[in-house]
Amino acid sequence: MKQASSQMAVRIREFDWASTSIGPLAEWPVSWRNASQIIVDSGFPAALALGPDLLYLYNDAFIAVGGPDRHPLALGRPVKEVWKEIWPYLESKFRETLSTGRPTSETDFLMPLMRSGYLEETYMRFSFAVVRDDGGTPSGIFCTVTENTELVITRRQTECLRQLATLSSSAGSPAEACRLAVTVLEEQGRDLPFALLYLFDSETGRIEIAASAGLSVVPETVPQSIRLDMTSDTWRLAAVSSSGAPALIEHIATVLGPFLSRPDLVPDKAIALPVASGIPGAPFGILVAGVNPMRPAAESQAFHESVAMHLERAIGSARMKQLAEKRARELSALDRAKTLFFSNISHELRTPLTLILAPLRQVLDCPRLEPEHRELLGTARKAAGRLHRLVNSLLDFARIEAGRSDAHFQPTDLAALTADLAEMFRSVFEFAHIGLTVDCP
Question: Cα–Cα–Cα angle for 193, 199, 201, nearest 5°?
Fold first, then answer.
């Protein structure tokens, strides 16, 4: 202790221990002085509670654990006064350690500490070991601590965002995406004491509540529907929608306090954030999230912004699914209309074609027909016959699309089919004095 020059080593040496129940430092048991030397030499947060009053000693690294409100006045005072907000828990652990001589410990234990001007949510990994006097009697507590607050909260928030992305991505509509999202947010009571999800209705130009989390019921004092042009907007939802910037809502406790699912965690502030759509002034919706009163507001806002981003992706994906389904329905209706049209037009074409083919056949059967006329009429008959077959094929195709017919493959003489098709244009070629040779072996 004499050689140590740290802040707390100097303070412990200079403290008036003679005025306390454990007497002057020089008269302490050797084990106490050794334990004190160990903690002031350590860069790891460590503290002692000595004597019947469990007077508090700590090293430099422990200052941050207790916060600036405790240091330096905590030195030499009873632990139950220094750590009064968690003394009921500490008392049971100290009693167990002193009575049994066995160490006690906790991992990532929630310890609400008054160290930043408010009751702060912290998570500690600590161990309590007995300190014995020179006679071997338990007479104090040796405490080591690691604060894992950021690690625990980050892990918790990351898992929430993972579940949010997994669950809400299966939504088939924006409303369903909101309903699925709140099933995840309901389990996030510390980071989101409550949440209200609003959706923008482009047809009515209103923002309407779609889902809520952390509330037994949504009271009537909460805005249910907001027009974007409203001047009386105490929650500033219209302003958030038009500006695309978050807004702070204060005095929430008076409005929602009695309706919170967790009455032990009542926020007084909330943040309204836009769920962006990429279109200025027309977001997908708005997220109103309660600020954790036991954590810094900036930390809550950063997490809420991440939640809003995941909602943006989930609602955007649901909108795309809706558009795809709508497009599929439109295409299906178009296909039905096309099939109906083809069916009707095919019937309309078959009648005149039949009336054309019958007279042509009768004329061609006449023996007094001139050869050149017979050739021209024969070409016309072939063309009309082919057109008749095409109309029949079109009608068959319409029946197949409508599910009223089954197609069967039939062997086809491609050479004969090609020659027949080419012969339809022979008269055109001859009229232009162009030779036409068809070679389809």
Answer: 165
Render the burial of 34-72: b for 16+ CB within 10 Å, e for the rest: ebbbebbeeeebbbbbbbebbbbbbbbbbbebbbeebbe
Report the phi/psi class of residue 101: left, alpha or beta, with left for phi > 0 and alpha for psi in -120 to 50.
left
Is there a contact between 246 and 301 (Cβ–Cβ < 8 Å)? yes
Place of tokens 């020059």: 5
Q: What's the CA gap between 184 and 307, in Å, rounded?
A: 11
Give me the residue label for tokens 């000693």: 57
Distances (CA, A) of 291 to 19, 109, 424: 46, 22, 83
Using a 10 angstrom Cβ sphere, with 0-12 exposed, 13-18 middle and 19 or more buried, the burial of residue 165 is middle
| Closest by Cα among 144, 142, 145, 124 to 48 | 142
Segment 266-289, tens digit of pLDDT: 999 999 999 988 777 678 999 999
Tokens of 84: 């009064």
- Let me know: does 226 contact 234? Beta carbons within 8 Å: no
Q: Taking the chain, what is the end-to-end CA distance rounded to the nearest angstrom?
A: 113
Q: With beta carbons less than 8 A apart as the criterion, state whether 325 and 333 touch.
A: no
* Of residues 226, 228, 308, 309, the one with CA closest to residue 272: 308
Full DSSP string of 119-185: EEEEEEEEEEEEEE-TTS-EEEEEEEEEE-HHHHHHHHHHHHHHHHHHHHTT-SSHHHHHHHHHHHH
Residue with tokens 């809420």: 304
pLDDT, one tens digit per residue, over 289-337 is: 999 999 999 999 999 999 999 999 999 888 888 888 888 888 888 877 7
Q: How many degrees, rounded to 5, is the angle at CA 310 between CA 309 and CA 312? A: 65
Give the residue carrying structure tokens 């994906």: 317
Residue 41 token pair: 């030499």
Tokens at 235, concatenated = 């929650």
Share of the chain above pLDDT 70, in %: 92
Strand partners, 142: 48, 129
What is the distance between the alpha carbons of residues 341 and 219, in angstroms, rounded to a whole number? 56
Cβ-based neighbour number of residue 125 at 10 Å:
16
What pTM does this model have?
A: 0.72
- What is the per-residue pLDDT for 115? 87
Beta bridge partners of 199: 208, 285
How confident is residue 3, by pLDDT bands cut at 50, 70 and 90? Answer: low
Q: What angle do CA 401, 407, 409 make, to 5 degrees?
A: 145
SS3 417: helix
